Amino acid sequence: MAPRVLLLSIFFTVGLLARRSAGLELGLQFGVEPQDIVVSRNKPTLLQCSSPTQNVSFHWTLDNKPLSLVNDSRIQLLTNGSLYFRKVYHKRSGQGPSDQGVYRCIIHTTTGALVSQPAHLRFAFMSHEFAGSGRSFSVAEGDPAVLPCSIDSLPTAEITWQQNSQLLPQSHRYILLDNGTLIINQVQKEDEGDYSCTARNSLVNKTRVSDVSRLSVEATTSLSPLEILTPGSFRTNWTLGDNVTLACV
């Protein structure tokens, strides 16, 4: 049974693409196509769709299957073609219905149809665990320090850093990467301490604080300058006990 379902899904997908090409040739067009969206569970949501073409009807698909709105008062097809959810459901696989997936809007006329671009509806979340936090780092004074702060979040969490429980001040030496990693350029002795990062996802209204990472700064040692040898004075044979100076040019 599974291969038959897969084959039908492939045929339906190919059919959608063919109908989009044919619809464009017929002069059909969208005013607004649905866009990717990240939502919170049990909240109202709108997938927009409209067309300036006269005398069209609208239909929707979910994961390349026709979306049935019969006996479902929770989802409403608006007169302009948009799809309105009074609240979106998200249940784990096999535990109930879920509105997460790939949606397409289809406009129909008596002469043909036009299929919209795919729109992914996904649910916001934030993981409980950070990756790479709670470690100790030792960096030589003057070198850069790299402190990771990675957490799975949709949308991307807003990251802030603290040093010794105080919000890290603005500095040209601090670089915050998109993945939350903090880079401290030209590390100084006062950079030594305990660092933690805070991640906030406002869409799910959650804030998490990482484990503390310890940064130690080692003082640099001064080296005596090397004697520079000219090619004519360089010796290749040495006797045990000789003092040897190696050139670095």
UniProtKB/TrEMBL annotation:
Record domain Ig-like: where: 3-116, 118-213
Subcellular location: Membrane
Database matches in Gene3D superfamilies: Immunoglobulins
UniProt entry keywords in alphabetical sequence: Disulfide bond, Glycoprotein, Immunoglobulin domain, Membrane, Repeat, Signal
Signal peptide coordinates: 1-23
Pfam hit, one: I-set
Taxonomy, superkingdom: Eukaryota
An annotated GO cellular component: membrane
Record-given protein name: Ig-like domain-containing protein
Organism: Graphocephala atropunctata
